[in-house]
Amino acid sequence: MTDKRIILTTTGSKEEARKIANALVERRLAACVNIVPKVESIYRWEGKIETAEEWLLIIKTQSSAFGRVRDAIKELHSYDLPECVSISIDEGSGEYLQWIADQVQ
Predict the structure, then answer these.
(1) Residue 100 burial (CB < 10 Å; 0-12/13-18/19+)?
(2) CA angle at residue 50 from 47 to 56, to 5 degrees?
(3) Domain 4-103: CATH class, spelled out
(4) Which mean pLDDT values do the consecutive 10-residue runs of the chain (105 residues) have?
(5) Domain residue extents for the chain
């Protein structure tokens, strides 16, 4: 088990995905953010089933930064309730995990 995390969120546009990704890296809250374009999301919102084309952000960070990443996503996001889930990284390349640690403050 490591203290590294992958945080997931989605956005409704490429521009918003880039804005959030850039802010997280600039603020040293994330070492890297991958943007996966045009994922289809099906979900229930306000009693109705919705379908949306979204951009998935895969955010690499440390557990100590989770709260600040969550707060930044809330601040920068246009959604009323943006996704923000954290997945533990159990194992990984030692060099890559160290690089994450070196980038996140």
Answers:
(1) buried
(2) 125
(3) alpha beta
(4) 96 98 98 98 97 98 98 97 97 97 96
(5) 4-103
